[in-house]
TrEMBL record:
SUPFAM superfamilies: Multiheme cytochromes (SSF48695). Residues 58-140 form the Cytochrome c-552/4 domain. Keywords: Signal. InterPro entries: Cyt_c-552/4, Multihaem_cyt_sf. This is Cytochrome c. Gene3D superfamilies: Flavocytochrome C3, Chain A (1.10.1130.10). Residues 1-25 form the signal peptide.
Length: 488
């Protein structure tokens, strides 16, 4: 009796698996071809061969300039990032490693295809996995599958890695793809070169900068599509033209829609995550890596400068019956090629702080001043989004969020108007109003939660000198102070 029962249980389990698979594949909206995408829910593909991937230091021995620029970029930190490791650790506990591999597909693509990354943590990993988005990721990309994805858009790492070819007669040949028609000497005998128009398009960045929920295919981060549907894409100003150049060149690309000269491109991939660069600079300094620490501090300064260049404020009074009743603040996205803010909009915080004082210096109204515990007051005007799960409850976790209950960001070259009611005391003839557009990576308690969740082998005190999470630094992206008459 017993053996038969075991057999039928196994049969039933197998049948259920097949049915589950069939149910997935049969989704009329998001059809997934699991043979085509073997690392699902990461959509990475790999031309599997014995061709090795190489650590960035290897590429750096012949390409020192690119290495120096990349080393210390957010791409070089994409896997080691303690905030990422904390969230990954939570994700693996919540949904299991098979699903959390989706995260690793973008944060350590080589770690995923080679199978080196088996979960959160940094211990015993090869340099190719630890270095996140490294040289050999981007320069081994031979194509994209953007039209075959479940959403029929770039998503979740929908690119193909082909580091080279193997041939029974010629052995292994490394092939690196880049923007040029290769010369005879290209590769210095180490690799062959292929001209790749993909590297001159935003599609290269798109697969990783469109993050979808692993199952519901909800766009959690939509930087690529925000850009594609905006004025910069129409004028052929690409991600590379603002993020692979220095700050002055980025401003020129944004202001004039003029493409940078070839020699102006830099591998800095400079964005807005000044907190990560700052933490990593501290860790490098502690470790005696002076050059890296200096590089990271330079990244930090560029990130702050980029944020300060992104937006502008216009403050104006609104009178009714001759009396001042409202203050209008126009918030303009002047230089971000996508919405402002972009990417992790459900975690990032960009908000208006407004303070009005009468002639005696007494505050008569305020909004958006950070509370002593690091939170923002209820009435603050935030530009970002609130995530919700399929139970319609609030969440910050990317494996839970299947929709936004609020999504309020500013399109490229667009603006939003915000009105604040103000009742000046009868005696006041003038008031002084200060408006600030402020930015931080996360709400204080969200950052504390994430850093609490880092895997055990990342000792925050030892690595970063962090005993507790200090108040998160805030950048003032734009500030305007104006004196306004209380009546006409
Ligand atoms: C399609 C590629 C992709 C996938 C999949 C992906 N991420 Fe990311 N992740 C990114 C990009 C791009 C950013 C940078 C966005 C930004 O800085 O605003 C990012 C940023 C983050 C950050 C913020 C890091 C910081 O220092 O502030 C965390 C945390 C994070 N990801 C966790 C995850 C987790 C957990 C998963 C899996 C559930 C995941 N990511 C899946 C591409 C991806
Ligand atoms: C996120 C993707 C990405 C990463 C990571 C990356 N590159 Fe590039 N690389 C590009 C793109 C895009 C271009 C073309 C930019 C342009 O238009 O010049 C490029 C251009 C190049 C070129 C030819 C143009 C030049 O600058 O001389 C070389 C060589 C190169 N990369 C080497 C490297 C090395 C070495 C590393 C690692 C230290 C690296 N890349 C990391 C995307 C990347
Ligand atoms: C032995 C030296 C050597 C090593 C190691 C090396 N390269 Fe190159 N590579 C060259 C030379 C030489 C050129 C051609 C001149 C140039 O662009 O600097 C070149 C060109 C390139 C280009 C431009 C190709 C084009 O046509 O646009 C890319 C991209 C590139 N290498 C990537 C890499 C990557 C990624 C690695 C590490 C996996 C690497 N290289 C390692 C010597 C090397
Ligand atoms: C293999 C996936 C991948 C590719 C391809 C890729 N990125 Fe990224 N990128 C990431 C991840 C992951 C992060 C965030 C890492 C983190 O915050 O821990 C990131 C971060 C960034 C940042 C910094 C964001 C910040 O908050 O400061 C910029 C800027 C950026 N990428 C631009 C680009 C551009 C431009 C390209 C194309 C030339 C590109 N990326 C291609 C995965 C990728
Ligand atoms: C016209 C210039 C411009 C173009 C084009 C552009 N960006 Fe940006 N990007 C910015 C500016 C300015 C910021 C800082 C403000 C912000 O966070 O939006 C930024 C920020 C970012 C961030 C960091 C967001 C965060 O909160 O940490 C990422 C990631 C990013 N860009 C990726 C991309 C990608 C991918 C593309 C192409 C699809 C692109 N950008 C095109 C100007 C540009």
């Amino acid at each position: 009796m017993k053996p038969t029962f075991r057999l039928s249980a196994a049969l039933l389990a197998a049948l259920l698996l097949v049915l589950a698979g069939a149910a997935m594949a049969a989704s009329p909206v998001f059809d997934v071809d699991r043979t085509f995408y073997p690392y699902y829910p990461s959509l990475i593909k790999w031309d599997k061969s014995t061709i090795p991937f190489n650590a960035p230091e290897v590429c750096g021995s012949c390409h020192p300039q690119q290495f120096k620029e990349w080393n210390g970029s957010v791409h070089s930190l994409a896997f080691k990032d303690p905030v990422y490791q904390g969230e990954l650790n939570k994700g693996v506990k919540a949904v299991g490693h098979d699903i959390a591999r989706q995260c690793e597909g973008c944060h350590s693509p080589i770690g995923v295809v080679t199978g080196a990354v088996k979960g959160p943590g940094l211990a015993n990993l090869p340099a190719t996995a630890l270095n996140g988005v490294s040289c050999d990721v981007c320069h081994s990309v031979s194509g994209v599958t953007h039209w075959q994805t479940p959403s029929h858009e770039p998503e979740n790492g929908s690119f193909i890695l082909s580091p080279g070819v193997e041939d029974p007669n010629n052995g292994q040949t490394l092939i690196k793809r880049g923007p040029f028609k290769p010369s005879e000497e290209c590769g210095g005998g180490f690799h062959e070169c292929r001209e790749s128009s993909l590297h001159l398009r935003a599609d290269l960045c798109a697969s990783c900068h469109q993050v979808y929920h692993y199952e519901a295919h909800f766009p959690l981060e939509a930087t690529y599509l925000e850009w594609k549907h905006g004025p910069y894409a129409q004028q052929a100003i690409l991600c590379q033209d603002c993020h692979m150049v220095d700050i002055a060149t980025f401003k020129r690309s944004a202001d004039t829609f003029r493409k940078p000269e070839r020699q102006e491109y830099r591998h800095v991939f400079n964005g807005a995550n000044y907190l990560l660069s700052y933490l990593a600079a501290g860790a490098a300094k502690k470790n005696g890596e002076e050059e890296l620490a200096a590089n990271l501090m330079k990244q930090y300064e560029m990130e702050v400068e980029r944020l300060k260049a992104a937006a502008a404020l216009e403050l104006s009074p609104v009178y009714r019956g001759g009396r001042l009743v409202e203050l209008k603040v126009r918030v303009k996205n002047i230089r971000a090629g996508h919405n402002l803010p972009t990417s992790l909009t459900n975690v990032r915080q960009m908000w208006l702080e407004l303070t009005a004082k009468d002639e005696t210096g007494t505050v008569i109204m305020s909004s958006g001043t950070i509370n002593p515990d690091g939170s923002l007051p209820e009435n603050s005007r935030l530009f970002n989004s609130d995530g919700m799960g399929n139970d319609f409850h609030f969440s910050v976790d990317p494996w839970v969020i299947t929709a936004f209950s609020r999504h309020d960001t500013i399109p490229p070259r667009g603006y939003k108007d915000v009105y604040f009611g103000v009742a000046a005391p009868a005696a006041a003839k003038k008031i002084v109003v200060t408006a600030k557009l402020r930015f931080r990576q996360a709400e204080q308690h969200v950052a504390e939660e994430l850093l609490k969740a880092v895997p055990k082998d990342i000792d925050l005190e030892q690595l970063y000198g962090l005993r507790a999470v200090p108040p998160l630094p805030v950048v003032d992206m734009a500030v305007q102070e104006t004196t306004i008459a209380t009546s006409l």
